[in-house]
Amino acid sequence: MRIQKKSRFVLFVTMLLIQSALMARVLLTGTIINRETGQSIPDANITVLHTGRGTSSRDGGYYFLEDLPAGKYKIKVSVIGYASVVRDVSVPQQKTLDFALEPRAIEYDPVVVTATLSEHRQSNVTASVDVLTKSRLQELNGNTTGEMIKSIRGVYTKSYDGLAGLNTPSIRGSEPSQVLVLMDGLRLNTGQGGGVDLNVIPLAAIERIEIIKGGHSALLGSDAIGGAIHLISNDMLTLKQFHYSAKTTLGSFGTRLLTLNGAHHIGSVTLFAGYNRTQSDGDFKYRAPESGELKTRVNNDSRTDNIFLKGKFAIDEQNTFQMVYHRLQTEQGIAGNVNISEWTGLPQTTPKARSDSKRNALKIESDNQLTPRLLLKEQIGYHTYDYHYVNPESWIPEDDCHKNTALSADIQGLYTVTGNVTASGGMSIQKDDLSSTKFKNVNSRIMKSLFGQIELKHNLSISRWTWIPAVRWDDYNDVGSRSSPKMGVMVTVGNNADAALKGNIGKSYHVPTFNDLYWPSDEYTAGNPDLVPETGTNFDVGVRFLNYTNGLVQAEVTYFSNTIKNLIVWQSGSDYIWRPVNIGRAEISGIESGLNFRLPSEIAYVNIYYTKMKALDKTDGSGNRGNRLIYRPDNKWDILLGAKLGPVGTSLNYRIVGKSYTTADNSKHLDGYRILDANIRTSLSISGFSFHMRLQGLNLTDRKIFINDGYPLPGRAYRITMGIDY
Question: Is the pLDDT of residue 538 over 90?
């Protein structure tokens, strides 16, 4: 009897153990990538068929399924723009399952990092974003970053003297200094100020360009009143073990470009090296504004050398370490203003003025997936920008050197609370210094910040709701502290054919620059150490319609408004000395609209973008109150027509820009202009080698154009590019 009871007990325990094993719940993890490029795919839908379970991929394409009972399942991965994949998995025998998705013929919904500081697909962020990927950049015309972004709706560029001159961005009517420019997450704006020249950054070094329109200080801090431009350098993540390329460009006005790139995978290490040289004589012809006489631009040559180095080490599947280094050196002539001087009666040219600038940018970062729910990102950055200007023929001969140095450290955590709730936050510190032959007693600027953000998603009836509140607090040792909140909301209905309503509201700011605070005092000018930050209140709301069932049809309309207070304006005081003061106020509003139509396989495509903007001076007590702000055109059209047949592609870019005022009292203006650009491109693959050729025609109608008063743009120009990849 005792033996029988013992047998029953053993049987009971055995059955309990078997049942526990059958009911055991395990963790399944993996990554989703693009089969052709190896790039990660965030926001992909992962579904466990016939169970009602599912999740979505996150930063780096990483996903996890928790509490999955032991057994056999079919896992389906689907996302717009890629062919769906279904694979079998047995758990707990298999605990990782990766997917490589085949992209469809039409590229849509690229990855965006800048909007939330984590990887998302463009359709899943509330911010107003435009992304120029490699394939989209091929459809446009130009060879520098500055030449490319002028095609974005809501974006204007201040271009001086074509390829050889300065090219700075304005987003939704902002000043160039109110646009934050990042390179691989590292700030390029310096404490000295003045904006960032995008002409010195070659297109060959760029994988994609992300343009965030509207204030974004809630995540990025100062300088983002108008928005931000994030330049992502060439991506090393490919499925091949190596990739090498060489490319050269020859063009009008002595334009020469040379680009050499190489990437190689060695075990868990990926290495990338790139070199680019861009040169231009800049000796184009223009018509003098006053006389109409045809002249040749002189002292307008430039040469820029760029070096990019990247190294990535995968410690394991959850931990990676990466270093990025960029070195730039530019030497150029400063041609000067061609208008007639009121004092001398002669053109204000500078035929012997020269400048030399150098940039060194180093970023070291690591990504650590500490738990399935927690991702930690750490980054250290070092950035120097040296500028040397010489003008021996100035009224007072000039020979000035400025050295800007920035050292920064950031840490960010992303925590997945549930499948529909993600929280992120972090802190950063940055120190800016300026050493100059012109400026004396410049204080170091130390910035400390904290930020937090929550992404909330839920389904309500047939709609999907996304809420993204964010806030950032920054403290400066010289201008005090500032908080920047922002709220983004999006409501989406449908799948392959969907409609979305989205909006954003927030506050942004721009701290006074070292130029504003510490400009040397003399009998004519002086800085103002009592300045406070410029502040902006941003609002936008828009609707988007998308149909992806047969080709692509996308239509979007966005209304935006930006009120900027405490604008820093240089003016003469009672002592007749010019100094900056916080008296300015601006109200900028408008509509951005766009229509994108692409046939299957992109046989033909049409993009039509229109921006209508009103940028008004609302400074109290000013005689110019109610006038248009200078250099802000009211209207801008960007029209792209293209076709692709086999290995041959062609496109036409037509831009129409309205007139802009050049004086605060609106007594003078520059006429509007129209520019027609075009390109034709082809490629051929033989035995692992790919040969490329691209012919560009810029300003084909040979218009004589001034975007900035006194600084002409080149007339008709041609460029031919030939390259080989292996």
Answer: yes
